[in-house]
Design a protein that fits this description.
By secondary structure, the protein is an alpha/beta fold. The strands form 8 sheets. A 6-stranded mixed beta sheet has the order 5-2-1-9-22-21, with helices on one face. A hairpin with a 5-residue loop joins strand 24 and strand 25. It is globular and about 70 Å long. The two termini are 39 Å apart. The structure holds flavin-adenine dinucleotide. Flavin-adenine dinucleotide (FAD) binds next to helix 1, strand 2, helix 2, strand 6 and helix 8.
Length: 420
């Protein structure tokens, strides 16, 4: 138990859920000096994860330094480190700093009175043989940089490779998973091929982008008409789409990689990027919280963890149920943000002994970029109708959504300081 006379609120993760929660919390408790807020993350920045695919092809600012949000918030302490242990019964978390010197090698314990778990998700390789070992993933800033550097390398090597088959392998890029991440990445990369071909004096028809999807269609959350139009747009970019195809493994032989699939022959390549699924870190399951599919934490209508009312799980970590229809709330940035703001309000209520608000997800829409200047999707209109689009306008909507997120965070700051 925390024996200090302060109330300590610890927020794990400075992603969409964590940062929205912490910015609002610090405003809510700005006059309550006995409440201390602790934000923990392994990075010093807030990552705009929804724009990772952009950074995989070009220089693009997709992080915001946490110091920019926290500089004028004296009631928030930032702890940089890797969360390695969560103890829900004894109410503490352990952080590893990844340092090799003996003074800081010991994990540091942070005790809490209230905890918010917002650690996001990891790539799920589903134990497909060879996949985790050989495939790239797209989850962290470093992943996108790795993909960008590797792509350029493949073009550079192909430029002087005289063996036709080897050239093909270097210039064949395979993406596993035809959901939002796979499609956004495939289209951005395919768009970059022309510039790279030019740069390395390669024939523009040589690079290949292959998208492999298990189900019978890409983009499962969009309607059939939009999927058909997106598929056409992607094929026009030269992307080969294999639906109803399962990635069954990856094999390496004498430096050659092959993506194994069913049905179909293995695909020889030097680049496989897996975007086929997510799962939650085992760290959370080990905490004692009850978990459901993908390892997401079962929460009640106010996002509190079962049997631990002082603990909230939000964003990808939470298995929240939409009271309207009873379905699981999907993992998406828009829901993580809503849950972060609501949890800040509820912590305020909990500490002041008031009734908590229930979570009612607002589905604002869905936008999938198809390269830099095209996007497909829909946005909810106030009258309950939907505005559907495919085209340049969509890409503006996509950009506006990302800017709105930053704007809202700054607005919390404005409310705190009284000026921008
Ligand atoms: C390429 C891509 C595109 C996407 N596009 C969209 C989109 O267009 N629209 C949409 O709604 N959703 C999109 N998503 C999904 C969306 O990004 C996630 O649902 C959202 O980020 C979840 O928010 P979160 O707060 O739960 O976790 P995150 O935003 O992932 O934040 C988790 C935070 O926890 C930190 N962390 C994790 N583990 C530890 C640890 N052990 N120790 C310390 N810190 C840790 C991480 O550094 C991170 O800052 C996309 C995802 C990807 C990968």
């Amino acid at each position: 138990m925390n024996t200090s006379k302060h109330i300590d609120i610890v927020i794990l993760g400075a992603g969409y859920g964590g940062i929205s929660c912490v910015t609002r919390l610090s405003r809510r408790f700005r006059k309550k000096t006995d409440v201390r807020i602790h934000l923990v993350d392994r990075h010093t920045y807030h990552l705009l994860e929804t724009r990772l695919h952009e950074r995989a092809v070009r220089e693009s600012e997709i992080t915001v330094p946490l110091s920019r949000f926290l500089a004028k918030r004296p009631n928030v302490a930032f702890h940089l480190g890797e969360v390695t242990h969560i103890d829900l019964n004894d109410r503490y978390v352990e952080l590893d700093f990844g340092m090799t010197d003996t003074t800081s090698a010991q994990p540091r314990r942070i005790r809490y009175d209230y905890l918010v778990i917002a650690l996001g998700s990891k790539t799920n390789f589903y134990q497909i043989p060879g996949l985790e070992q050989h495939a790239f993933q797209l989850k962290e800033l470093e992943d996108s940089e790795r993909i960008r550097a590797h792509t350029e390398r493949m073009f550079a090597i192909a430029a002087t490779e005289t063996n036709q088959n080897k050239r093909k392998e270097y210039l064949r890029f395979v993406i596993g998973g035809g959901g939002l991440t796979g499609v956004e990445l495939a289209t951005e990369m395919a768009e970059r091929f022309d510039a790279l071909s030019e740069q390395y004096h390669l024939d523009h028809s040589e690079p290949e982008m292959v998208l492999v999807e298990l189900s019978d269609r890409i983009l499962p959350s969009l309607d059939g008409k939009q999927v058909a139009r997106s598929t056409e747009a992607m094929q026009a970019m030269g992307i080969q789409i294999y639906t109803n195809t399962r990635v069954t493994g990856m094999r390496e032989e004498e430096g050659r990689l092959e993506v194994l699939r069913s049905p179909g022959a293995p695909i020889p390549t030097r680049t496989m990027i897996w975007t086929g699924g997510i799962r939650i870190s085992d760290l959370i399951r080990r905490s004692g919280a009850e978990t459901g599919p993908q390892g997401r934490v079962i929460v009640n209508e106010s996002l509190q963890v079962r049997q631990y009312p002082e603990v909230f799980a939000i964003g990808d970590n939470a298995l929240a149920i939409n009271p309207k229809g009873g379905k699981t709330v999907p993992t998406a940035a828009q829901f993580a943000l809503q849950q972060g703001y609501l949890t800040a309000d509820n912590l305020d209520r909990l500490i002041r002994g008031r009734t908590l608000k229930e979570y009612h997800p607002k589905v604002l829409g869905e936008v999938v970029s198809l390269g830099k200047h095209l996007a497909v999707g829909w946005a909810a209109l106030p009258v309950g109708a939907q505005f559907r689009f495919l085209g340049f306008l969509g890409s503006l909507v996509k950009r506006a959504i990302s800017e709105r997120h930053i704007f809202l965070l700054w607005k919390e700051r404005q409310n705190w300081t009284g000026h921008w």
